[in-house]
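Exercise 7b. Backbone tokens:
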């Protein structure tokens, strides 16, 4: 029986509650911190109003493939990957980091993604790309190697997908471009489409967050992510967005949750931009 993505997210909440305060990782990257750094629950967190943030030091790159975007099929199956590589850094002493971890970051990004995708493509079926969900349990070993295969795939400027330098060098640029993928990368996407009977794949490639207790009035954090959407059947990129910024609190409410919220408007721009009016710059 197929489970809706919304149900899966609700189910994941229960799992995250048991992980609060623990450090997790994906893609082979360790979150800084361990059980010895666990904080006592914040007595005031989440009870003093909304978290107010000031965004600064922002770097952004946006890229669409107009041809691939124009033929998006709203009735197709969309495979949703968790972030391939997550780093959740934090200082040793952090009063508001009790629920902060790599797993919690990844879940919060998924929360933002899902709310936007439902709005943009309400008829498209989204399936979580994890064993026991869209992937059969028997594929666990294959999934373990899949993140590395994707991260090591050659992409922009002949560099690995895990390399952020192509986007840092293009800070402030947004453009329409059709990239020819390497044969191996294209074959990998085609194989995923065939194996799991899906059309699209959303892949947050990296998610790096560092908490900073000295930022703003009540702490803050730095954020870095590369978020990509692929047409796996055709073996091509639909769009990607690189986003990096510093988020500092402007009130007494600490950033103890909803870290992906500032990224929501940046991702939504990829889904709401009128590409007929897009001018490369």
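Sequence design result:
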């Amino acid at each position: 029986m197929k489970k809706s993505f919304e149900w899966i997210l609700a189910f994941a909440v229960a799992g995250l509650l048991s992980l609060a305060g623990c450090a997790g990782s994906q893609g082979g990257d360790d979150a800084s911190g361990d059980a010895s750094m666990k904080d006592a629950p914040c007595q005031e967190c989440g009870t003093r109003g909304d978290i107010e943030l000031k965004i600064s030091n922002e770097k952004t790159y946006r890229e669409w493939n107009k041809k691939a975007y124009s033929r998006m099929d709203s009735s197709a199956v969309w495979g949703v990957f968790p972030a391939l590589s997550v780093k959740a850094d934090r200082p040793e002493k952090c009063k508001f980091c009790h629920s902060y971890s790599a797993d919690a970051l990844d879940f919060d990004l998924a929360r933002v993604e899902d709310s936007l995708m439902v709005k943009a493509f309400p008829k498209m079926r989204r399936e979580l790309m994890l064993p026991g969900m869209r992937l059969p349990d028997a594929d666990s070993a294959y999934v373990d190697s899949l993140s590395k295969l994707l991260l090591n795939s050659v992409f922009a400027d002949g560099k690995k997908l895990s390399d952020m330098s192509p986007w840092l060098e293009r800070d402030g640029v947004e453009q329409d471009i059709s990239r020819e993928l390497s044969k191996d990368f294209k074959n990998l996407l085609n194989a995923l489409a065939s194996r799991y009977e899906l059309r699209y794949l959303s892949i947050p490639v990296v998610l790096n967050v560092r908490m900073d207790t000295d930022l703003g009035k009540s702490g803050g954090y730095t954020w870095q992510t590369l978020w990509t959407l692929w047409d796996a059947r055709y073996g091509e990129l639909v769009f990607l967005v690189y986003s990096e910024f510093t988020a500092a609190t402007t009130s007494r409410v600490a950033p103890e949750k909803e870290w992906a919220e500032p990224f929501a408007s940046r991702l939504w721009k990829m889904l709401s931009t009128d590409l007929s009016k897009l001018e490369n710059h």
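Instructor comment: The radius of gyration is 19 Å. DSSP finds seven helices and eight strands in the chain.
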